[in-house]
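Hey, can you fold this one?
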Amino acid sequence: MKLYDVPEGSKIRVIGEIKIPPSAPDIAINEELTFCRIDGMYSLCINSNHKFVHLVAWAEVEII
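Sure. Predicted structure:
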């Protein structure tokens, strides 16, 4: 499922290629995130360390 189709507030797992903006914190494949919202090309998500991360809006993810 594409990230832009996921309901806000969902717990997700990244299962496809990961693309992030320059100088953004890294995201690992299979890392679990809380999806907050789409903001342009990128999303606002929270990782397991309660840090904000930014994943491209068209990333392949699964809802967990």
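The mean pLDDT is 93. Let me know if you want another pass with a different chain boundary.
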